């Protein structure tokens, strides 16, 4: 399982802290242990059920968000770093973990991806935090998981959480109007 997660997420290597990299990797392993989905499913299922016939896969979207978040954090540090400190490991770990709870939110029935009963009751920001806390992920990163989606609009987001939230939404909202 460890090798499969590392292959799924080459971006884990960007996390400088060995301890944090281990916690994030372990969270994905734990999610796969509990998920009705297989690792292979992640390269085929749509990244959202909110867009009918969504043409982009779960992993394409997830990895894109991590890349956007890192590049955004780099640009913000380059131009505004003196005034706005950004913890890069926190951004990367938060972006990698933001949707880990979707492994408990979705299921595949007869080749169709659906929301599971658990997902109906507990959206992925909640299950994602539960998985991450179980694996020792620091609160500053659990905060990003908790606040990355609409639920987070009620939360005072950290700088790192704003970056992941916007990276996620800029790679999601255009699909809602695609083809209209
Ligand atoms: Fe999400």
Describe, in plain words, how this protein is organized in 3D.
It is a single chain. This protein has helices spanning 2-8, 18-34, 58-80, 88-97, 117-121, 124-134, 139-147, 159-170, 173-177, and strands at 106-109, 112-115. The protein has 180 residues and is mainly alpha-helical. The protein has a two-stranded antiparallel ribbon. Helix 6 packs antiparallel against helix 7 (139-147). It starts with a helix and ends with a helix. The mean pLDDT is 95. The structure holds fe (ii) ion. Fe (ii) ion (FE2) binds at residues 98-99, 124, 148-149.
Give the key terms.
binds fe (ii) ion, 4% strand, 180 residues, globular, mainly alpha
Give a short synopsis of this structure.
The chain has 180 residues and is mainly alpha-helical. The chain has helices spanning 2-8, 18-34, 58-80, 88-97, 117-121, 124-134, 139-147, 159-170, 173-177, and strands at residues 106-109, 112-115.
Topology:
Blueprint: H1 2-8, H2 18-34, H3 58-80, H4 88-97, E1 106-109, E2 112-115, H5 117-121, H6 124-134, H7 139-147, H8 159-170, H9 173-177
Antiparallel strand pairs: 1-2
Bound molecules: fe (ii) ion.
Which small molecules are bound?
Answer: fe (ii) ion
The count of strands amounts to 2
N- to C-terminal separation?
A: 41 Å
Total helix count? 9
Helix/strand class = mainly alpha
Low-confidence stretches: none
Strand content: under 5%
> Largest beta sheet: what is the strand line-up?
1-2
CA radius of gyration: 16 Å
Mean pLDDT: 95
Shape type: globular
Biggest sheet character: 2 strands, antiparallel
Order of helices and strands: HHHHEEHHHHH
Q: Please bin the fraction of helical residues.
A: 55-70%
């Amino acid at each position: 399982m460890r090798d499969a997660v590392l292959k799924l997420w080459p971006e884990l290597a960007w996390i400088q802290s060995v301890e944090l990299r281990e916690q994030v990797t372990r969270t994905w392993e734990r999610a796969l242990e509990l998920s009705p989905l297989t690792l292979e499913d992640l390269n085929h299922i749509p990244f959202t059920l909110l867009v009918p016939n969504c043409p982009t896969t779960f992993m394409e979207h997830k990895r894109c968000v991590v890349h956007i978040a890192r590049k955004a954090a780099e640009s913000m540090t380059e131009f505004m770093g003196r005034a706005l400190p950004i913890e890069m490991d926190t951004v990367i770990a938060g972006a990698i973990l933001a949707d880990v709870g979707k492994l408990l939110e979705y299921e595949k029935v007869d080749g169709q991806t659906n929301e599971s009963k658990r997902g109906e009751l507990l959206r992925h920001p909640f299950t994602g935090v539960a998985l991450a806390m179980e694996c020792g992920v620091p609160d500053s990163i659990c905060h990003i998981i908790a606040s990355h989606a609409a639920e987070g609009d009620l939360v005072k987001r950290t700088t790192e959480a704003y970056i992941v939230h916007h990276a996620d939404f800029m790679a999601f909202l255009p699909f809602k109007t695609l083809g209209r």
